[in-house]
Amino acid sequence: MAETRYIGIDGGGTKTVCILGDVEGNILAESRGESSSVKSRPWEEVQRVLLTLIRDVLDQSGTDMSLLGGIFLGLAGSDRPEDRKRIGDWLQTELPEGVPITVHNDAVTALAAGTWGQKGIALISGTGSIAYGFDPATGGFVRVGGWGYLLGDEGSGFDLGRKALVAVMRAHDGRGEPTALTGLVLERWSLQHPGQLINTIYGQDNVRTAIADGSKLVMQAATDGDPIAVKLVEEAIQELEELVKTVITSMDKQPQIEVSDNQHITENKTPLVITGGLFSDHMFENRFMQTPLIQSGMFDVRLLERPPVIGAYLLALQEQGIELTEVMKQRIAGFVFLK
What we know:
Blueprint: E1 5-11, E2 15-22, E3 27-34, H1 43-61, E4 68-75, H2 81-94, E5 101-104, H3 106-115, E6 120-125, E7 129-135, E8 140-145, H4 148-151, H5 157-173, H6 181-188, H7 197-202, H8 207-213, H9 215-223, H10 227-250, E9 270-275, H11 282-289, H12 292-295, E10 299-303, H13 309-319, H14 326-333
Domain ATPase BadF/BadG/BcrA/BcrD type: 7-316
GO molecular function: kinase activity
InterPro entries: ATPase_BadF (IPR002731), ATPase_NBD (IPR043129), Euk-type_GlcNAc_Kinase (IPR052519)
C-alpha cells in the first residue's frame, strides 16, 4: 500500500521553498521558487509559484496527488483570516477533495523549525520583520509587526536599506552628516554621484528586494565604525527588541513579566528563535545578543540553523496527529537542502 505524503511550504519576501516527505520523517523532494508573499506580489504570480513548486515535488518523488495527506503553508503576510481563506479556497480547487490545507504566517514555520514544533517565539528580520508567539498544541498565537514595507517592517532589511539610502541623500544635500555609506552605495550600483540613485532605485524590477539588499552595506560600514551606520544598526536592534517585548507581555503563560533591566526571570526559559538575513551577519547578531532583554536570562535564544520549511513539514504532520520521534528528527536533520 502506497504511503501518505505531506507537503510543507515556506514562503518569504525573497524566495519560496517546498518539500515533500512521508509519515516517518523522510524528506523525498525539495523545490524552490520566487517570493510568494501575498502582500508584495500579484495574486496570479503567487498562485503560479505555489502550484509550480507543489507539482515539482510531486513529480520528483513520483508521488500521485491522491496520496497527499496534508499541506501546511507558512507564507509571509498570510495569517489574516481573509488571506488564509483565499489561499485555502484556491488550493482546494487544485488538490484532491479532502486534502487538509493549513495556511499561516512564515514566522510560524521558522518557529517550528527551531523548536521541533514546540511552542515559543520567533523573531524574523529578513526583507521584512515580525515577532510571533505560537503554541501548536492550542493554535494560540500572538503576532507583532509584519505589517509590510509601507506600514511597518521596522528593523528589517528593507527598513535598514531604505534608511541607508536616505542617509546618503541627506549627506548629498548637506542636511546630514557625511557617511561611508555614500561610497558603498555608489559602488554597489556603479554610479558616479548620489543624484543618479533616483533612476536606479525607482527603476528596479523589485524595488523592495533591491533596497533590502542595501542592508548589507550598512553592516559593512558599521563594522568599519561609520557613526551613521552604527546608529542605524542600533535603531534596528531596538525595533526588534521592542517586537519581542510586546509579544512576551501579551502571552498568557507569562502575564507577570515586566519588561525592564530587572525583569522577573521565569523558571522555564522561553525558546526564542531568531532568523532572517540580518541575523546572518555576526556583528548584528552579537549586538542583538547584548541587549538588556536577551541578557535578562529569560530566553533560550536559538539562531535558526535548519531551513524554515522544515517547520512547515513538521506542522503538516502535527495537524494530522503524527508525533515526532527522535528517529524522525535525525532523518530530517540529515537531509541535504539546496543552497
